[in-house]
TrEMBL record:
Full protein name: 4-hydroxybenzoate 3-monooxygenase
Superkingdom: Bacteria
Lineage of source species: Bacteria, Bacillati, Actinomycetota, Actinomycetes, Kitasatosporales
An example Gene Ontology molecular-function term: 4-hydroxybenzoate 3-monooxygenase activity
Organism this protein belongs to: Streptomyces bullii
UniProt xrefs under PANTHER family: P-HYDROXYBENZOATE HYDROXYLASE, TRK SYSTEM POTASSIUM UPTAKE PROTEIN
Keyword list, A-Z: FAD, Flavoprotein, Oxidoreductase
Spans through the membrane: none
Entries under InterPro entries matching the protein: FAD-bd, FAD/NAD-bd_sf, RIFMO-like
Pfam family, one: FAD_binding_3
């Protein structure tokens, strides 16, 4: 079988590329190792920036999101036992949308497969990429029903298979530079069956470690606790989790509303960036090309930015022979990727400096944080990075 583009991975990046290609009437196949049910329920991101929502809207992909997402206009830092609110909407005119990633994936799958008639193959096994540095690349995989190897000939491959996929590994090591950063800390990522305990995102900066509170829906709240990297989630039973959250987020605010923990996993916080994001006919997008630990809630936003640039670039080339978008793809994406990487690093020091055990780092962290609440210029600088580029 021959198609214009094979998209590997049905996450936010791959599904957005697929949708953009289908709108232009181009043939593509999306390959996904998991089932549809699984990807429509996998909990992850929730915070989407305004420019990103506008990008989805422009491509006809935000109807349900705009009906159902919550709009957030401020955030709260808790330190020194007090609450400090930052109304970022007043500083930037922008707000955050909160819309759980599984809902966005559900919308994107439905639009791609059920509305735009796109070809998507779930539960595929052993995906392999071939002849990427020729103009006749191909992708093969084992069919889940028959176990036979299927081959898809194509013009381009979009590598959108996330941090643990295979496409990044198909690039010869001498053709890329991989820059890595390990924060040396872990986060216990939790989902609680409990209504949010605040009307906005809350960051607890505490000598015992960072704690975060993020609404996901009226019934479900995401929490984070800084823990030693590699900690075992089983060492964090219900009582210990809630005692630690109550302590690290304690102020004059009412105690947190507790609930059953429906997800509990330890993330070892690290970042990487692959440069360039292109090898021959393979274009990497999203977490396959760069990872940002969820410190600043940027990963899915970057994945969608890549997808917009890549989808538009592929359409321009395949329908009009205009290769500009593909030639500048890597550079256009990496500028934003590095900007967000730097902000994550900056924010990480605020979150984790106080609990580092180093009194010098702890005191400079608090100085940095106080500056955001005493200098209007510092507040605007923070808000601009936190919200991302102005929506066009
Ligand atoms: P995904 O979402 O990982 O999708 C990749 C897809 O590829 C499939 N796959 C394969 N398919 C075919 N062949 C193979 N060999 C394959 N190997 C894997 C996978 O099953 C999957 O379906 O990557 P994509 O599209 O690049 O999207 C990236 C985002 O998912 C990620 O950056 C965000 O979840 C990061 N993130 C957040 N980002 C935000 O912008 N805002 C947030 O609030 C936010 N919160 C988070 C987060 C990530 C978290 N975790 C779990 C690390 C919170 C958490 C806890």
């Amino acid at each position: 079988q021959r198609v214009a583009v094979v998209v590997v991975g049905a996450g936010p990046a791959g599904l957005t590329v697929g949708n953009i290609l289908r709108t232009a009437g181009l043939d593509c196949v999306v390959l996904e190792t998991e089932t549809r049910e699984f990807i429509e329920q996998r909990p992850r991101a929730g915070v989407i920036e305004e420019w990103c929502v506008r990008g989805l809207e422009k491509r006809g992909l935000a109807d349900t999101l705009l009906q159902r997402a919550q709009r957030h206009t401020e955030c709260e830092f808790r330190f020194d036992g007090h609450r400090h609110r930052l109304r970022y909407v007043d500083l930037t005119g922008q707000h955050h949308y909160v819309y759980p990633q599984p809902l966005l994936v559900t919308d994107l799958v439905r639009e791609y497969a059920d509305v735009r008639g796109g070809d998507i193959r779930f539960s595929v096994r052993d995906v392999r990429l071939h002849d990427l540095d020729t103009d006749r690349p191909s992708v093969s995989y084992l069919c889940p029903d028959t176990g036979e190897r299927q081959v898809l000939l194509c013009d381009f491959v979009a590598g959108c298979d996330g941090a643990r996929g295979v496409t990044r590994a198909a690039v010869p090591p001498e053709r890329v530079r991989v820059a890595r950063h390990d924060y040396g800390i872990g986060w216990l990522a939790l989902l609680a069956e409990a209504p949010p305990s605040s009307d906005c995102v809350v960051f607890g900066i505490h000598p015992r470690g960072f704690a975060g509170h993020m609404a996901r829906s009226p019934e479900v709240t995401r929490y984070y606790l800084e823990v030693p990297p590699g900690d075992d989630p089983d060492d964090w039973p219900h009582e210990r989790v809630w005692a630690e959250l109550q302590q690290r987020l304690a102020t004059d605010a009412p105690p947190l509303t507790e609930g059953r923990l429906i997800e509990k996993r330890v993330l070892d916080m690290h970042n990487y960036v692959v440069e360039p994001m292109v090898f021959g006919r393979l274009f990497l997008a999203g977490d396959a090309a760069h990872l940002t630990a969820p410190i600043a809630a940027k990963g899915m936003n970057l994945a969608l930015h890549d997808a917009f640039v890549l989808g538009d670039g592929l359409v321009a080339y395949l329908t009009q022979g205009d290769g500009t978008g593909l030639t500048t793809y890597s550079e256009a994406c990496l500028t934003r990727v590095w900007d967000y990487q730097e902000f994550s690093l900056w924010l990480s020091e605020i979150y984790h400096g106080t609990s580092s055990g180093d009194p010098y780092r702890a005191a400079t962290t608090l100085a940095r944080l106080r500056r955001v609440f005493t200098s209007p210029t510092a507040a605007v600088a923070f808000a601009e990075q936190f919200l991302g580029p102005r929506a066009g």
